[in-house]
């Protein structure tokens, strides 16, 4: 309501607009506060058209096809009178505006079907009371179709006969007698065949399944016109709140997959039943407003009413007499019949609905229990006057809490729901529209064992729960496997790194061995003997006589004066070369040796021996200190030289 008053709502459409003409329920008390009407129709024209429709229920849009632009509209009967000669220019212009241009029709306008839910004779009879039906000659590009669905009184009597049939031929009746013992024999089985035929005849005579089939067939016809012909359809009955609500909401359910979900089903009931004023108080027996108070009456299935007190608005309770005969005649299971039709569609298309038949049963039980305020009173205006939404609980919240307690495994969820399989309209052929008795609802008390048609579904649900548990266990195992795989990958990467380091170390060791062999050969070419130890030191012993035992000197020799050594004394030349490993300087063994011995090494650390001329440097050779006087006193044997 605040959106209407503030004007903060918008409708992005060039053909339709939201009108606030009924924001205070002054034009029509049983219509919603916001109405979708053609954009080229002003509010003044809407008010003029309301005077030509029963209870001012003008033609308004209920659903628009998102692709073709075809609309599904609803209203009440026109007030054409007994002679069918009364007309209204505003009403005819409003109805003609529903015939919008086709999307690819090159300016052509779509056809309009006016679907009258009543039998033709009933429509003509209503003309005597000022009502009637449209004439195709008065409404642009229209065709009038009569569906022949009986009124609320016929539905009430049919449902009463169905109750009697179930009570008589069920496993346990209201008088406590089993149907197997009734009439002196079994109703079913191998007993009294005449009784068996009579019971079947009683079910057929109730007419309930025929009425359900009529509503299904009419709704399927409407959906086919909108989906296949891209035509617009205007639906009405007498007052536009009973059969009209059944046909329009069921056609919406067939056309739009959204309405076959939990959220969509709630929106559908709120829109086409509650907002458009289906009189739940009169039809089901909900509390209603009477003057300054609201009357609490409960209707029986046979149409009789119990005498209940009247609760004043001030809180006082005064005794009241029984309900009037007018109220008694208004009882009819219209909404129950519509839910029965939904269950028939669910049976025909088990993959198209998110909710299950169990949900529909619980939903109906909640509606009939009067525990929630959603279905109290006859219209939104009355519910607002009573403060129902503030004082009473919400049925949708209750059902949502039930589902959230168990998640997708709850009985309200349809196990076979596949939104991709039926993502378009449902258009059942006429041969498929053969309804059966809804066992979960109608047989649960009379035939409790046979009503368990959901046993298979229950078993499937148990299997689904087990499957869900196994899937969760599988996901946990896959998560563990991924963790183990990640750990294995990390270990393999670490192992590869270790192998690379080991391979690099082996290559370095081989290279160092080759370099040490090269250094050894280079030092031995000077007449020295090289000993390598296992630690980080390298000791080079240079001997004048290679046959004698070498002496290791770890300190550099110093040069002795000539006076301190005798001329006859035999002198040995000893050279000690020590290399200390330094990882900071270089990790290359040859580089470390050359750094100690050769200042003329290449920049890349390579040795240029024997082309470097290191032997000619004499005492300038870094790291090698020799006693050249001792060289002069060395004895030279002829055996050192070999003949050529």
Structure description:
- By secondary structure, the protein is α+β, with helices and mostly antiparallel strands.
- It has helices at about 1-5, 45-50, 90-95, 120-125, 150-170, 195-205, 210-230, 245-255, 260-275, 280-285, 325-330, 335-350, 355-370, 380-385, 390, 395-405, 440, 455-525, 590-595, 630; strands at about 15-20, 35-40, 60-65, 70-75, 110-115, 140-145, 230-235, 290, 295, 310, 315-320, 530, 540, 575.
- A five-stranded mixed β-sheet has the order 3-4-7-5-6, with helices on one face.
- Strand 5 (about 110-115), helix 4 and strand 6 (about 140-145) form a beta-alpha-beta unit.
- Helix 5 (about 150-170) packs antiparallel against helix 6 (about 195-205) and helix 8 (about 245-255) packs parallel to helix 12.
- The chain is elongated and about 155 Å long.
Q: Whole-number radius of gyration?
A: 51 Å
Distance between the termini: 126 Å
Low-pLDDT runs of 5+ residues are 1-10, 184-191, 291-327, 544-587, 615-624
**Could you describe the largest sheet, including whether it forms a barrel?**
5 strands, mixed
- Residue-averaged pLDDT, rounded? 77
Total helices: the number is: 20
> Helix content range of the residues, please?
40-55%
General form: elongated
Number of strands: 14
